[in-house]
Amino acid sequence: MEVTIPGNSSVEKLEDFERNLELMKVSLTAIPVQIQYATKIAKEKNLVLTLFTANEQIAADSEINDVVEFNYLRVKAAQAMDEAIGFSEK
Asked: pTM for this one?
């Protein structure tokens, strides 16, 4: 999922209560189909986006998930290659 926030926002300062935006809540329930496994698994997670203004610096100790970043960049590269192929075919 990719979220694009317009960069031309005139917001100069965010209050603490405005920084965290809950984008979605996900709930997963797995019910075993084999009789020997009787344990039902239930998980819930929230996806929270932390917002910063354009003039703010992100803390150096911010958590970056390398696997997520790698896959995001991989998909963006594939999209760029598809676009380049489309231009070359024209």
From this structure: 0.43
